[in-house]
Amino acid sequence: MDKGTFTINKRSTIAILIFFFTVMLSSSVYASMPIGTPIGEVLSTDIIATIDEKPIPSMNINNYTAIVVEDLRTYGFDVIWNEQDRTLKVTRNEMKTRTGKEFTIQRLEPGNFLKPVLFTDIKTYFDGKEIISFNIDGQTAIYFNQLKPYGEIQWNENTRVASFDFPLPVIVAEPTTPEKNDKIVVSRRSTQLDPEDSSFYHQPLDRGSMPEHISVGLFYNDTAVNSMLVRSGNGFNIGTFEDEFDVIFSLADTRQMIIAPDASYYLGLKRSYNTTAEAQEMLQQLMEDKISAFIVRETEGWNVFIGSFDSMRKAEDEIDHLNLDENWTVMGNNRGMIKISDGENKTVLLYDDNSPLYISDASDSIYQSVLQIGNIKYRGALTALSHTDQQLTVINRLPIEQYLYGVVPKEMPATWHSEALKAQAVAARGFALANIGKFNHIGFDVCNTVNSQVYGGYESEKAATTKAVDETYGKVMSANGELVIPYYHSNSGGQTESSEYVWNEEVSYVRGIDDPYSLDAPHAQWQSIITYDELELKLLEKQIDIGRIIDVEIINMSPNGRVLELQITGNDGSHSIFKQESRWVFGLKSNYFSISINNDAVTFNGFGYGHGVGMSQHGARVMAETGFGWQEILAHYFTGIRIE
Q1: What are the DSSP calls for 358-423, one per residue?
Q2: Chain-centre distance for alpha carbon 252
Q3: Residue 352 DSSP class
Q4: Which of 400, 446, 522, 575 is least surrounded, with the fewest CB atoms within 10 Å of its CB?
Q5: Chain segment 577-586, per-residue pLDDT in tens
Q6: Closest CA to 72 of 86, 87, 92, 53
Q7: CB neighbour class for 324 (10 Å; exposed up to 12, middle 13-18, buried from 19)
Q8: Domain coordinates of the chain in residue numbers?
Q9: Segment 518-532, tens digit of pLDDT
């Protein structure tokens, strides 16, 4: 990877020899070397180092690109200094915004001496494992290629760029274990078992009725939050969001807002207004009378509240104190209201859980809006609904095409061939449309995890995947006049599967086919050896008790080679595992395997990774690299489809 120009003279040769000798010394000899002893040289380099496409200051040490440890703080890492034991501990922080570091590259000829490399007693650890580090002008430096455990490092000789990219998940077809939450089933597995639940499934494809926006659950159920702090660099718009985002209020001078459940008492009008203009007029009158109030969105219209009060008694006393007429009454704390406050915790608006308000940034269009929750940025608008009395479900509503910007790079590495990325974009678009309305009962269409499609928001976007989405704008697949639900998986192992052998329904456009493009991909072949004792424990974890295992046998296989029934026999009975269950129960990469038994252990000799239905992502990559276009890739994996 590091091939920077390096001028060697007698002095640098001696320094390098000293350095490598030092690296190989035992810890006791290390301790005997005086801190600050020169052990190498820092030389200028023409190599540019990048982390997730953001340049990081770099140098040449011993013909290797090196970086300063402290600089990693702005590139997705936590760097913690412990003075007591003189250690730097570096860990990946997926919640960190990777802003990068502003710096000016000093244009020097490669190989010029810049400063000495000094011995340091400071030890640097990546996830608890010590790595080589040096002292450079009072700063701790490491080799750039020591980032390898965290992702992929690539070298481009033409551009002289050494790039590091955090890994992106490829396998997103379904969770590795069944959903355990009894409150709500939100999983790709349930979506695929019940495709008829899709509002577009088994209906004529009508592009005119396809929605333009999608709602994504960011925090919900077990991840529901007590409050939500939202930041914007240019202020906020607040409005309603149904078919379009309609702005009601703008707050240009506010940089952060807080959304939280509200349990206070207020004084409010007994009868709501039909329009915001009427509510605004009443609000203006109250403000002229020096009465602090704000507008409220209720299910039946718009109201104006005065308050808040922490008890019914105090609210009732205020009616008399303000000499309000009979149109005013006390609004109780059981109304399921949600409060929007500014950065100074001043109430801006309240809204009823059944009539949510949305927040965008103060851009002229929802297509330009970018908001931040914690360290993660999202396009579009945000709202919150009551999960419980004290917790919120947080939802991101945005245009579907912009949603795909944050999905495709999480479903397929952005470094892959552009035609494979386009095929993935069309598949992700179809899957999103097929799930519109799927989870209306909790307020959104899809979630942001492997239970739907992985969605990383604005933060995860890559130029290559955004281009793939744009160049396939609006494209979907249809079969027999109906929308195709584009199932996909990591690697078919050389043979895809028909839908009825994985789930229940026979679907015309996902038929098992030969897939030679997946034969040389990662996990095309795999092996897993599980002892009888381990099998027994795995079965017991699923509340399956058949005693001591005696035998394991494949009873039935699909025409495409996947195991449809695996029977395990014990001294207390037998149990059959059907279709995909073998993956969940035994932690296998697929149910495309054969078995052999030896010394009370089962060897699973398998092929592929995932359920095997629809598009193999690694197969798509190979097809693209071979010269196939994205339409040809999709036509290979989906039978009898049209792209429109």
Answers
A1: EEEES-SSGGG-EEEETTEEEESEEEEEESSSS-EEEEEEEEHHHHHHHHHHHHS-TTS-HHHHHH
A2: 30
A3: E
A4: 522
A5: 999 888 889 9
A6: 92
A7: middle
A8: 10-165, 188-209+402-473, 218-399, 525-607
A9: 998 888 999 999 999
